[in-house]
Amino acid sequence: MLNRNLPVGTRDEFGATAQIKERMINQIQRYFRERGYAKITTPLLEYKAVFSELDLKTYQPYQLLDEQGETLVLRPDLTLPVARVMSTTGIKTPVKWYYSGDVFRVKKKLSGSYNQIAQAGIELIGYKSLKAEWECLVAAVELAQALQITDLKVELGNAKFVPLVLAALPLNEIERRNLQTALYAKDLSRYTTLIKPLATSDFYPFLKVWPWLFGDFATVWQQLQLLPKIKAVTAICEELKETQIFLQQRFPQQQLTLDLSIASPQTYYTGMIFRGYCQSAADYLFSGGRYDQLLSSFQKTLQPAVGLAFSIDDLVARTITGKPVETTLIYFKTSDWRQAEALVRKIPNSSLCLADNLKEARRLAETAGSRLVDVTGKVVQA
Amino acid sequence: MSALKIALTKGRTEQQVIPLLEASGVDCTAIRHKERRLIFNDLPDIHFILVKGPDVLTYLNRGAVDIGIVGSDILSEQNNQQYDMLDLGVGKCQFVLASTPEFDPNQIKRKIIATKYPNITQRYFQKIGEDVEIIKIEGSVELAPLVGLADAIVDIVETGTTLRENNLQVYARLQKVSTQLVVNQLALKQHQTAIATLIQRLSTAKQ
């Protein structure tokens, strides 16, 4: 019976879902193409070693062996293959890539999760300026607007913030790691116990609010004033503030939030991180950030880089409203073929009715739940 | 703002948590008089569904609910990745390794352990450097060593009565268990104020 079943975690896509998905990917790709980006495509199959930077427990890949016994995986991530290309081909930087494709992550069986996830995004390589982050953010917001996401919230953060603050605390390595784990898991019960020994420290007022250091930009900024001055953290904060001012000027209506309490969404991020979500979505719609340590050029020098990826499936799920689309079938005689084609182009969601006679055409229209028109566009009564 | 959706583990957890929720200002009248209802969306700001413990994370991970109330045994067994934000201080019990009086934990053999919690069991024996064979049992685990299916069991014990009644004794104490409030990572952003308020009130109520 396996010849009629799908493996767990996979699905077929057809009809409205497949169409919306295709349209969205095309729209995103066209946007980046018109903005001067070049396309990059990498294979579905890669050596497992390419993804050694990932936490493979979270991004568990499908694995197989090649004929030499080397472990191959279906790519669980799209940025690391680009890093591989950059470090082995001698492509001159700076470069702006756009891509789209599927990643594969084995998730908990029978949990309603899908293991094949469509993404589309960009990688800007060789740019150390903050302008690269801003370019990603502008693209993200403009595309969200084009995709009619009206309640988008853009969340900013920095992958270095938590490690830098933790390093400044008077704790030993184990205490620091425990505190980080409790903070990232938002395990408030444990976190509160762990910060108690620091009650007399200058950091204590800040530590008390740290797990809640996310939300509306102005509020978080105010709470941040509780943090004693750490030079490296000040630089991060200035960058975030500049970004907020830039985005407010560029998109005055855009809601901005700040999160300075989370783990970086990818282990390879080294600087600013950004994500987008809306009230009605079950997951983030896009995410990205700076990753300066990942890429080394052909000459083994490090390359600064920033990336952004849209989660296509979440965007599609948000767009499918459940309302059936009205479709039209055009019944025509072979001699009227050209006229019928012209009508298809004119009527949205219409197509040619490939029936030999009117009786058959009526039956097809009824089965498909479509209205039936003739070549003049007049509705054919049932 | 849409209502906060909570999946509450039905049964004993539900009974233990309702007084805490009520002390936090949540009206639980409908759940108290639930009859056969499983979904409670009468209140404007907070909705409940009653589900089995192992299903709480399934609803939470898919974003079908914003908050889950479930035992730490299940969170640990299912490798929870969502925010485990508050220990509600109820449903306290402990994992133990138990068996008949004849069981010798130091006997040199690959032991057979029966349990409802294979991941927790595996992690425990890995930690002590022992490899065991695990048999997954769905309920009444204490039967397994009595009928010779397993050498010992890993199970949750509250008072120890069931173990004693079955002539089993405790050979090791593993992790402690209590009821937790778990929050979907994105829902925390989407309902920040409502969730912060609920956590604040529950923290006060449990004291």
From TrEMBL, chain B:
GO biological process: L-histidine biosynthetic process
Reaction it catalyzes: 1-(5-phospho-beta-D-ribosyl)-ATP + diphosphate = 5-phospho-alpha-D-ribose 1-diphosphate + ATP
GO CC terms of this entry: cytoplasm
A Pfam family of this chain: HisG
Pathway recorded for this protein: Amino-acid biosynthesis; L-histidine biosynthesis; L-histidine from 5-phospho-alpha-D-ribose 1-diphosphate: step 1/9
Domain notes: Lacks the C-terminal regulatory region which is replaced by HisZ.
NCBIfam families referenced in this protein's UniProt entry, alphabetically: hisG (TIGR00070)
Name listed for the protein in its UniProt record: ATP phosphoribosyltransferase
Gene: hisG
